Amino acid sequence: MASGDSTYSILEHLPEVYEGLSKRLGEKALQERLFKQAQHESEQVFQGKNLFNPDRIPLFYETVRFILKVTGLYNWGHRQFLDLRLITNEVAFEQLPTELDGLRILQISDLHLDLDPELTPVLLNLLQGLEYDLAVVTGDYRDDTKGSITACLKYMEKICKALTPPVYGIMGNHDPIELVPALEEMGLPMLMNETVTFEKNGAKLYLSGIDDPHYYEGHDFDRLRGTVPNGEFSVLLSHAPETHKQAVELGYDFVLTGHTHGGQICLPGGIIVIHNGDCPSYMLAGNWTYKSLKGYTSRGSGGCRLPIRFFCPPEITMHVLRKA
Asked: For residue 86, what is the enclosing H or E element?
């Protein structure tokens, strides 16, 4: 089904869509999410807890774009934005079943596909021929936090066709709830405070996904309680790394996150200057550990608001799980 047809189908059946999402996400969480979406669309509230959030400053991004072009830095930053790389990340776990040793999980995060149409073919080329056991997309499919989802869906349809099942996604702070049925029609099941089981060589991995914890705060760990049996190896998908304390409490072994873009515009050496992560600084990019929990924060595959990067190359990540 074409993305335009999918959008029309969703609008035509919104009551049924919301009823289904209410059962999965929880009625209270869905109501609060829809309320926040409406407020944000009408610009009554802005995302971000920082009073100096660029979204609050008129013409902020247009001004930055102009300055970069005048100084000659824009094209350089745009080339780095399109320098999408495949990162291999081996992580060892004592509790990993021997049968799952070598399991490959492909993570894609923070696509923001409608920001720049040049990104999609670069990503499709990188995905071609990749072999993995499981693929996950950890949120932020759209660039703006409000407005149309049509362009985003057009590009996501191509990405979904290029991914080999099983593949699962979660929602980010740029994603309206109406994206869920559209993405699922394209073959990307979404985990909305839900857990699924992945099996290989007779061993099980429990994969949980939560709704955006950063802005919409639709995540509900109480709905995940009991979905992972004690002692079983488990992975949590969380758009932002700020859920690390709840993840430890529920006994997750590994959490895959994004949201921060690794800073996107950094100093040489990847030194982060400005970020939007509500978490300890060591969790802003790459591997990290919190008590018994291991985590990885993707630097993202796309960019936010401006298609530029400096000293912070975009990535898709192949996590290889090893038995310690």
From this structure: strand 85-93
